[in-house]
Write a structure and sequence with these properties.
The protein is about 40% helix and about 15% strand. With about 280 residues, the protein is an alpha/beta fold. The protein has a single domain (about 20-284), classed as TIM Barrel. The chain has an eight-stranded parallel beta barrel, surrounded by four helices. A two-stranded antiparallel sheet has the order 3-4. A hairpin with a 2-residue loop joins strand 3 and strand 4. It is globular, with a radius of gyration of 18 Å. It starts with a helix and ends with a helix.
């Protein structure tokens, strides 16, 4: 497995786009793709969107999840322009994080249809400091409303977790309420493996109990430290080999995206290390 030290010795930002061996790249393409959540490199995107996408493409990423929707545009671009930018690099947009409101849902749906992206994912939700069941039940109703609107338009709607949803509320958790009260035909879930691990829940319990609900995964790793900080995939403690071996049988995952909320090194270097390490995990 490629370590951070070995990577830095053999690569710089200027050459981060060519660190992968041809065999690794071929493996990724043959397996249909390795996904990447663009939030990870938001610092580079803010300065140079086309250049950043090109670097990710050359690393080998070919599935993307956007995190830049606002008022009908993506990263301040009309949907067709952003789509062309991605398509021209041989990548495909699979999902988009968008905290849409019911009164704005039609605009958002139209924009995502033009972008030709299969999934809209609600990325985060505000909650009181000490939420009660009713708070999550109302969110479940909202997700059912948004999910049905997306389903009618031919899109899939999902929700992405952090750790707070797993705090106990009486005899249950907010996440359990969302899973049990949302319509499986209209609402899927994007399982953030890091945050579920951080919350110290049993992933396989959820995957088995709610088979087929977890269309999407966020793949990120956790430092072996008291802080349990983010780190590059393959550099931490999360057993991704085990999880990927059981994906098809249990969770229903169709796409996954490497993501790192914050990086201690340059975010593009982080993306390259995670890619290389994950290829090794998938090949072993």
């Amino acid at each position: 497995m490629i370590t951070r030290r070995a990577f830095i010795k053999t690569s710089t930002l200027a050459s981060a786009s060519v660190i992968l061996l041809p065999g690794c790249l071929k493996f990724a393409r043959d397996k249909n793709g390795i996904g990447f959540q663009l939030y990870t490199v938001r610092d580079h995107i803010s300065k140079d969107l086309p250049g950043t996408l090109e670097k990710l493409s050359r690393m080998g990423y070919n599935w993307l999840e956007a995190a830049g929707y606002n008022d009908g545009k993506f990263y301040n671009l009309p949907p067709a322009d952003f789509k062309s930018m991605v398509d021209n690099l041989g990548m495909k947009l699979i999902s988009s994080h968008a905290a849409i409101k019911p009164e704005q849902s039609q605009q958002a749906i139209d924009a995502h249809l033009e972008l030709d992206v299969p999934y809209i994912v609600y990325p985060w939700m505000s909650m009181p400091e000490k939420p009660v069941k009713d708070d999550y039940e109302r969110k479940a109703e909202l997700f059912n409303t948004l999910g049905e609107a997306c389903r009618q338009a031919g899109l899939k709607f999902g929700y992405h977790n952090h750790d707070f949803e797993f705090v106990k509320i009486e005899d249950t958790t907010g996440y359990d309420i969302l899973l049990e009260m949302t319509d499986p035909e209209s609402v899927c879930f994007e399982a953030d493996i890091y945050w579920m691990t951080y919350a110290k829940v049993d992933l396989m319990h959820y995957f088995k109990k709610h088979r087929g609900r977890f269309d999407l995964w966020h793949v990120k790793d956790m430092e072996d430290s008291p802080e349990r900080a983010f780190t590059e995939v393959g550099e931490g403690t999360i057993p991704y080999k085990k999880y990927f071996d059981e994906v098809d049988r249990i969770s229903g995952m169709k796409y996954f995206f490497i993501e790192q909320d914050t990086c201690k090194i340059d975010s593009l270097e982080s993306a390259a290390i995670s890619y290389s390490n994950l290829i090794k995990i998938l090949k072993d």
